[in-house]
Amino acid sequence: MTNTSKKTVMVINGPNLNLLGSREPEVYGRESLKDIEHRLKTHASATPWQVDFRQSNQEGEIIDWIHEARESAQAIIINAGAYTHTSIAIMDALLAVNLPIIEVHLSNIFKREDFRHHSYISPASRGIICGFGSRGYLLALDALADITAQKQ
Ligand code: CA2
Questions:
Q1: Is 106 a pocket residue for ligand 1 (Cβ < 6 Å)?
Q2: Measured distance CA(32)–CA(46) in Å, rounded
């Protein structure tokens, strides 16, 4: 059930993040995306924010959700997965949304292969959190609560 007195943050997860917990635990941790969703919603319950948590492997669906967020949300947290490094279309969609956007990555993308060092999401983002595993989603929500409370 949604709580209408709360603001909504749409949390968008991109391709392959549905596989979390099943492979590469040394890079992405042992939690599933469902575990992360549950932890984030529990964390959000002590804040003025409610979480609309989504995952898609389709670039077009992610773009449709960003458009939808213009009406249905007051902020976006996005881990675009590998589309981070390839998708000008997702960047354009994010740039067209007048909402605070926080980019999250589980891994420290700057410690990894060169092709992960560039993000098309960052030019549209208020800030980036990477390298803290699933805690990054909680940190992003805390940052959002702070910046919106201070209207900075
Ligand atoms: O560190 C992150 O959160 C990433 O966005 C994850 C993406 C990667 O392409 C980015 O460079 C950094 C990959 C997500 C794939 O997740 C998997 C999880 C388990 C098994 C296989 C893939």
A1: yes
A2: 23
Which of 2, 26, 10 minimizes the C-alpha distance to 137? 10
Give the DSSP H/E element, type plus range, for residue 16. none
Atom of ligand 1 nearest to the CA of 112: 11
pLDDT digits (tens, 9 = 90+) for 32-73: 999 999 999 999 999 999 999 999 999 999 999 999 999 999
88-110 per-position pLDDT tens digit:
999 999 999 999 999 999 999 99
Domain locations in the chain as residue ranges: 3-151
Does 84 contact ligand 1 (Cβ within 6 A)? yes
28 noted as active-site residue: yes
Instruction: Fold for 3-151, please state it.
Output: Rossmann fold (3.40.50)
